[in-house]
Specification:
The chain has helices spanning about 15-30, 45-55, 65-85, 100-110, 115-125, 140, 160-175, 190-205, and strands spanning about 5-10, 35-40, 90-95, 130-135, 180-185. It is α/β, with parallel strands linked by helices.
Length: about 200
């Protein structure tokens, strides 16, 4: 792939939306051609799968079903949108990618390495060059989302979100490539952005 792939990760309430808008603004200001997308979703088929995954009424969904649906959504997303964009030299900015499945289903749901295995063909070798992890504990982050309508994953409770947070920490500890950049998200949005911007200036300009 000849383009540049950026993903943003973090638990619910970590402030991803604000920083994603900042990243898009940075790329526009510097005349860098990019597409913005999200997971689960990003294509018509993937968005339909997203609606099934996140529907709060689907309380009977088995954990392995959830993991397979995420992988199916990702496979379509990569094939239809991410791969063509990167192959054509564009920058891709993605709200969540495979790291989310590894921590939410692998650690949070306790499915372990099976999550990596089922996502390998979905990702098809197209991994982010840089992943920003917005680091804030679920105890600090969860109060931020109480005022909004929660989806099925957000309704999982504090114990699930603690496991997810620890999963992210383990991913970072195991990352020997420097791909994942941990950003202290327990600060003002402006302070968080300055740290992200400094990395973007080094990697993208």
């Amino acid at each position: 792939m000849s383009g540049f792939f950026i993903s943003v990760e973090g638990g619910d309430g970590s402030g991803k939306s604000t920083q994603l808008e900042n990243i898009k603004g940075f790329l526009k200001e510097n005349n860098i051609e990019f597409i913005f997308t999200r997971e689960p979703g990003g294509t018509e088929i993937s968005e339909k799968i997203r609606s099934i995954i996140l529907d709060p009424n689907n309380t009977e969904m088995a954990d392995i079903t959830e993991a397979l649906l995420y992988a199916a959504s990702r496979a379509q997303h990569v094939a239809e949108k991410i791969k063509p964009a990167l192959d054509s030299g564009k920058t891709v900015v993605c709200d969540r990618f495979v790291d989310s499945s590894i921590v939410y289903q692998g650690y949070g749901r306790g499915l372990g390495d099976v999550v990596k295995a089922i996502n390998a063909p979905a990702v098809n070798g197209y991994m982010p060059h840089i992943t920003f992890f917005l680091d804030i504990s679920p105890e600090d982050a969860m109060p931020r989302i109480k005022s909004r309508n929660l989806d099925r994953l957000e309704m999982g409770g504090m114990e699930l979100h603690k496991k997810i947070y620890e999963g992210y920490k383990k991913l970072i500890a195991e990352d020997n490539t420097g791909r994942i950049v941990s950003i202290d998200a327990n600060r003002s949005p402006e302070e968080i952005w300055q740290d992200i911007k400094m990395v973007l200036e080094e990697k993208c300009l």
